[in-house]
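Budget justification, computational time. The allocation requested in the original proposal was used primarily to generate structure tokens for proteins on the priority list. As evidence of use, we reproduce two of the resulting records. The first is shown immediately below.
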Amino acid sequence: MTAVPVKSLTEQTYLQIRDDILSCRHRPGTRLRIKMLCEEMGASLGAVREALSRLAAEGFLESTAQKGFRVSPVSVEDLEDLTKTRIAIEELCLREAIRLGELEWETDIVGAFHRLSRLPDAFAISGATDVQAWSSANETFHSALVSACRSNWLLRIRAMLFDQADRYRRLMAISTKVDRDVVGEHRAIMEAALARNADLACTLIAEHLQHTADIVVELSLQNMDAEPTGD
């Protein structure tokens, strides 16, 4: 039996903890105990420590001297700042993608939208599996929209902001059902992009992202913080 390379095990540990944070299994404010994670995941101390340090550098965790790591808390103020920054970066990426995108770009957008539109809306479901499937398809669609952008730095920043925003959206999805025509919003964005109407596409994407943030604020997301646990 071939042993799994250490690097692969470390990467698997990182991806699992990251997914547990995004899916809200590890809720905001929760203290993550390294020993417990090692036992639960069957991972080495080194792999867990490296994964936690990496997640802290990406903003998913906070590291405190003598107290270890905890999942970064959420707040209305942070969400508002995140949303404003995300909209600015998203518009830059989308404008360049619309300017440079060719037939393959258009085809990818249409295909991603079709798949997303066929899945149960994450705002109307509560099952973890359905939410995960929708979230993955949603990410694919939004990534397809900007895939023709040639700025690697813009795309890296955008991906980081998307993941941070996704944690807020998933918190909302598991907390309540929301009456919202997400398919209609996505369709309008797609049609504007394919029509090469950059101004309209950027206006619609900004409204789409802001709408999500506004719903989270209305749900008083601050009250959903988990109390940090003791060491």
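The second record produced under the same allocation is shown here.
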Amino acid sequence: MSKQLNKSLTVSPFFLFFLIHSTQTGVGLLNFQSKIIKGAEQDAWISVLLVGVSIHFIIWLLYFLLKKSNNGDIMSLHQQIFGRWLGNLLNIFFYGYMLLIVASIIRSYLSVLITWVFPYSPIWFLSLTMIFVISYLVVGGFRVITGICFWRMLIPSLLLLTAYFPLQYAYWTNLLPVFNHHLSDYFVSAKESIFMYSGPEFLLIYFPFIKNNQNSQKWAHISQVYTTILYLVVTIISFVYFSHGQLGHVTWPTLMMSKIIRFPFIERFEYIFIFLWLLVILPPSCMALWGAIRVLKESFKFKPKYSLWISIIIVHFMVINVKSKVDVEEVGTVMNIVTSSFLYIYLPILFVFYLILQTFKKAKSGKI
């Protein structure tokens, strides 16, 4: 049975709606269209929908495992199933996964900043600035991060309101013909869609911080429905605004669509869009860094301040060593593979191992 922390450290279950959605929408929302179009082309929206639906199974799997964990997190679950030494080794890999998420988000956003706003600014300076902001929020604890998730949710949702501008130039025939691709094409688009849906796996860290966490699953599923709808709408708008050939060569389609937005008092709306997007990437970055610190604290009893310094030094080193646009794309490819493997391979394997362990325990107790 999972552990429930003191109420002063926890948040209400409905905040799961904001926590999961906010960690799922980040830099990937700016450029995922140009990646998924490579597979099923105009039918790629089907893959986006199917991957969104499949995440509901991942959420169910997460809740099943967390409810069986002694402390309600993946660190105790690893030790519970594999023992202390092997369990802590797996916790180290999970720690590395958290740091990879932070570094990839920061570097992807810096790529946008350097290209559009600060072409001559050194990466190390921008990286330190970003890490300072993220670390400042992480020091505030989980409830502060939850507050950031709550307030920043507005920005991606505003995409639905600004859809009026690109829809004025929409060619709905871009979506035709429908269902005219092979199954392998849908799989390619689905594979490229997985990373943008990453975020529910943070439940493995903050589950004990949710009040009445045993009965909070509905909010996770509601959040996933909302995220799927948002990605689906943005995908369709992008497909009817850009041609297939254009999407294959546009690096940030969502940003390009924001360039056509004009107001009497704002000439270059895309600059406001870019700086506001900093608020969008903060929740997943903060959550991943906070999760990494908690892994070290729960597994090896590290003090949070030492864990924070170790983590941000590693993240900064990772960010500054990704220098070119090609390197950024390679990091994105690696993260997509790692996330896909974790969600669709490792978690089911963990589920199977737990069932096997329970079977052996029941058999042993029956013999006794």
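A brief technical remark on that second record: The first helix runs from residue 16 to 24.
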